[in-house]
Amino acid sequence: MRQDPTRPHVVGTGGKENALKVWDLQRPQEPLFRAKNVRNDWLDLRVPVWDRDLQFLPGTQKIVTCTGHGQVRLYDPSCPRRRPVLDAAFGEAPLTALALPEGNTSVVVGSARGDVAVIDLRKGRVLRALKGFAGGVRALQSHPRLPLVASVGLDRFLRLHRLDGRLSHKVYLKSRLTCLLLNTHLDWEAQEEPPPQKGVKDEEGDELWDALESIPTPKKGKKRKISGI
User: pTM score > 0.85 for this model?
Assistant: First the structure.
């Protein structure tokens, strides 16, 4: 379930065999929008429904979802058709999380296998991949003004990527992470840490090494010369 940031009383829901629905909490008797499944595949078989995450595009009525079958779909409730206006596929693993960067023209999706990519919502193609993941991604969040996206997952790392593909920060947090909240009030550009300088000691690391007991180095024995060799 996700809340529309511009209309707090409007939420979207979805799940396994539970197609996307948009609800008005002030009138919860019937949904405002009920999505319709895509047409049958080329074998005339029904395509299963499994919405794993969704987001409202700010300033519009459009909604983007990612599914457990590797699909990224864009819905427009203002159109008469209830089927998605864009249906794109990414990878073979289930998609578990998505985030909307600034501009509403692309979406960042992550999978249960650790694949993360930026997908164009106009043509449905992959723009670039974000690398460095070693486990399933459980949450993504984009900065509303800067080209940054934060991610957490089962490999216990918090990562901060730039949308051009560069990794800005990587922090090990010990637990299997399932969600995150990005503080957008900080000056993120000023928070960039300078590269480590040579000669600067790590105080915490020095204290750890000083507390360890030193082991004397064994003396080397004299070499003997063996006759006949």
Answer: no
